Amino acid sequence: MINLEIQQILLPKKVYIGDTAELRCSFNSNSFTLKNLVENGSVQLSTSGFITPLDMQNYDIKSITISSAGVDHYQLSINFVPWKIGSIQLPGYDLTSNFTEPELSSSDLDDHYLINFQPVNIVSLTQQDSITTLRPGAAPLLLPGTTYKLYGALILFVLILILLVRSIIKHEEIAFYLRNRKLLRKYKKNRKKTEKALNHLLITGKKETPLDDKTFAQNFQQILRSYLEVRFNIPFSKIVTSSFMKAFNEAFGGTEDFTSLMSERKENACIQITSLFTRTDFIRYSSTAALNEGERVELVESAKECITDFEETEKATGGEKNV
């Protein structure tokens, strides 16, 4: 009987009841029979090689294998499941019981290769880290798939925070932009309303009972005064025609030399609309004056041209206000 000297390790180092563990035993031997046995790789061994009966109440042997670990070096692996806490002692294992007679070399005929195992220790959950009581069950920290949602929500929060900070920093620019957009919608609506009223004034004048020239001139002025009040935020309904240029001067900057604060096109529109009021004032207050044939259409078209010039968006030149 040859007792083989082994180096034994248990994997994993801490084994619990019901876990599958592996006991690895390394040893040296110059047996030709062992060398022939593992020449084609690892070999499954039988549990009949244990020299005493197995205690199946304390452990369950799953498999036993032997393989070469180098020249005259071998490794025996026993996979087992422990069923008790504390020290477990496996009985010795006779490798020769797995050899058939034709495989035995002349030097191995009368020898038995015996492996004696050291005890292995099985721990319980309450023994690890000196735990004396079981901890209550805890809910999972994260549900499956929520990690991406959390990262997505975090990125979205950061983006919103950045936008919020930028909005606070640039609130004046944003407020100016919103006010300007609102003002442009107001101007667009005012222009549409005015042009519709002017067209309706011409249609009314062509009915079976057309408007007389004085009434036409009065309605014409009322429509344009309403337009100018909204467009320039100045009470044109209370301003006489002779003060129109002064009012336009105030609307375009309030300086005496108003031409330096507006484009030539808008300057001509101011002059032209003043002349339209001068002409219709003459029709309204003269007892003998009358509009020429086709002059009503000319007045309306001229007023529309002035409106178009007023609504034109000028490119920034460093001098003109956005009016």
Q: How would you explain this protein's 3D organization?
A:
- There is one protein chain.
- The chain is an alpha+beta fold and 323 residues long.
- The protein has 7 helices and 11 strands.
- A hairpin with a 2-residue loop joins strand 6 (59-70) and strand 7 (73-82).
- The protein is rod-shaped, with a radius of gyration of 53 Å.
Relevant terms:
alpha+beta; 323 residues; disordered C terminus; five-stranded antiparallel β-sheet
Helix content: 40-55%
Number of strands: 11
Number of helices: 7
Strand content: 15-25%
- Rg, rounded, reads 53 Å
Shape: rod-shaped
Mean pLDDT: 84
Q: Which sequence of strands runs across the widest sheet?
A: 2-4-7-6-5
Query: Helix/strand-derived class?
Result: alpha+beta
Low-confidence stretches: 315-321
Can you summarize the main beta sheet? 5 strands, antiparallel
N-to-C terminal Cα separation, in Å?
114 Å
Order of helices and strands: EEEEHEEEEEEEHHHHHH
Describe the secondary structure blueprint for this structure.
Layout lengths: L1 E3 L1 E6 L3 E2 L4 E8 L3 H6 L5 E3 L13 E12 L2 E10 L3 E3 L4 E2 L18 E3 L4 E4 L22 H24 L1 H34 L8 H20 L11 H8 L12 H22 L9 H17 L12
Parallel strand pairs: 1-10, 3-11
Antiparallel strand pairs: 2-4, 4-7, 5-6, 6-7, 8-11, 9-10
Helix pairs in contact: 3-4, 3-7, 4-6, 6-7
Describe, in short, the structure shown:
This protein has 323 residues and is α+β, with helices and mostly antiparallel strands. 41% of the residues lie in helices and 17% in strands.
